[in-house]
Amino acid sequence: MQARIEKFIPGGQALATLDNGKKAFIWGALPGELVEFEITKDKKSYCEGIATKIIETAPERAIPRDDCFLATSPWQIVNYEEELKQKSLLVKECFLQQHLNLDVLPTITDGMDYHYRNKMEYSLYWSHDDNQIHLAFHTRGTHRKTPIERSSIERPEIFQKAQEIINKLNAEHAEARTYQSLLIRCDQAGKTSAALFENGKSHPVMELLNDRLLDYDYSYSPNGFFQINLPVYELVLEEIKKNISTQKVLDLYAGVGSIGLSVARDKDLTLVEVNGAAFAEMQTNAKDTKAKCVLAKSEDVTDYITPDCAVILDPPRAGCDRKLIDKLNEVKPAKIIYLSCNPITQARDIALLTDNYSIDKLQPYNFFPHTPHIENLAILTKV
To answer: Cβ distance 310 to 337 under 8 Å?
Structure first.
């Protein structure tokens, strides 16, 4: 089936309208291109698919570095300058969908567009051709595993460690079906922590890692709450710190405390986290500070919100609970700093705050180059 691509949509697929009016969401295609595609999901009002042939090529198309790019980083087909442009446009689109026509700044990057991930989870694949285990990823849109020989988005130390573990398993004549996955993380110095997750067994306790953010040390579990791209994360922390002028700071959805403790440890700081493991790591990271650590859902401790505080929000992809948004509108804290990995839910939440807040800045960051994922920072000030 052929389609003319119109644009990217939030989520990263390319949009086309078919002759029968049905919308098609297609991986592997760029705006302006004419493509042939294979349908992977067919619904009454839309279909999803993967481009199989590029009939007319967009000038922004790039040659993917990895054979497995569709599974790990489907925007390897876009040149990097265009990727940064498209990510700002997608943030703008998310806010337009909430009837907010706002300026969005150019997407910030540290220029490291490959070998940036400090965490990777691999599947294991058994090949009947050589009776060996191979690293693998799930083929996009399916449950099938595809073996890989290289992957360029994780740090080299991670892929090297993964190969060493696979070689050891093969030397021991292990079977791939024994394992759910292989998780490896490394710190900025290149030290790795790895674990094989066995089917039917509890996940093993992994060796903790340590890193520095804005000259402060953090300890964290490799399979816990910590950012994937630390150099770009530091750029975000620097911007957040510049926008905090209050003495009182409330960090909600705080994880291991890396935002609040990096930007406001010298202030009257309260950190709130619901996950028990992350909370324990937060307490360790905050042990030499006066920060107050609270184990609770952010929407259940809204009494900490006061008119004279700055509130930091970094919620999961689902965004903020409506009860929390209502409390922010009621109390009207001086500043709201909202970092999101999902601009769709971020825009939904911020649209509910515009009666009481001006949106001073929308700043995307490229935490995940060659993928459609966007981290967006919004700065809101009470009007």
So the answer is: yes
